Amino acid sequence: MARTLALLVLAIVASCALVQITTAGTTHVVGDSLGWVVPPGGPIVYATWAISNTFLVGDTLLFNFTTGQEDVARVTKEAFLTCNSTNPISLKSIGPANFTLDSLGEYYFIGTLDKHCFLGQRLAINVTAYSGPTPAPAPAPPPASRVPRNYTVGDKLGWLIPPVGPLFYASWAYNKTFLVGDTLVFNFLNGSDDVAVVTKQVFDSCNITSTLAVLNSTPANIALNATGDHYYTSTYDKHCILGQKLVINVTGHTTPGSGPSPPATAHPPYKAVSPSPPASAHPPSNAASPSSPAGGAMAPSPKTSAAPITSGRLYFGTFMVSVVASALYF
């Protein structure tokens, strides 16, 4: 009887061990033999490493580094893009450090010491599946819905070559929800900038040889009339390459009802124009208009509606950015 009981216990232990082995995740050594350092080839090193691996829920990331010389912080996507380490999700300063991937989605890691992040010590990965049986899917959240909003691109900075490169407009768009019915307002200096609505291919290459449309009078108001990705840049020389580019994703529809206050100036439906900005001539301040009334007062021109985007298949003038693309900007 005792022998039978002992065999039964051994069988149970062996079964538990087998279950642990089959459900245990993979340990990924970040950077392989290089470890977690400021990479000699810049951010492309860890971006390439991430692409060559498949990450599942239950896997572990192992960061090998020397304590006191490096650290690793898990951060938000916005903090990753801007190398902002002020409020990390978690921070580990003793090497080696382990992070368990316990859910689907994107994970972002940076080194917080000195300028290590800016020099390429940054990693973004995407956990795409479960290592074991897939759990029952959670109920889909209801689609986003609210009244229309006006978004001023770049807020107070406006629409120009940003001081920190393309990450500025990517960060601006990151925490915003864009819906059909919203309006983008681009504020810029007439004669020094414009807004080009472009395809993804033009946006990625910054080869502004063709555009879907160009608006060259400020403020340029563009109504979002279709879901999907929208790409914007400028036709002025090297503005796109220097970071004046924006991509947004429209995810749903606004609710009927009262919308936002109309922008200060609305533009008629835009049309494609030559990428070369026209030279602007200004009449003397005391020049009288031939169409002015006898009293000399110019009759006000009627306002027109905001420029609609009517095709659901158009793409507009930027990130995501894929993770590798965002890493290459440093």
TrEMBL record:
Full protein name: Phytocyanin domain-containing protein
Chain spans, region Disordered: 253-303
Keyword annotations: Signal
Endpoints of the signal sequence: 1-24
PROSITE patterns: PHYTOCYANIN, PROKAR_LIPOPROTEIN
Domain of life: Eukaryota
Domain Phytocyanin: 26-129, 149-252
Provenance organism: Citrullus colocynthis (colocynth)
Signal keyword on record: yes
Record field: compositional bias (Low complexity): 282-302
Pfam family, one: Cu_bind_like
InterPro entries: Cupredoxin, Phytocyanin-like, Phytocyanin_dom
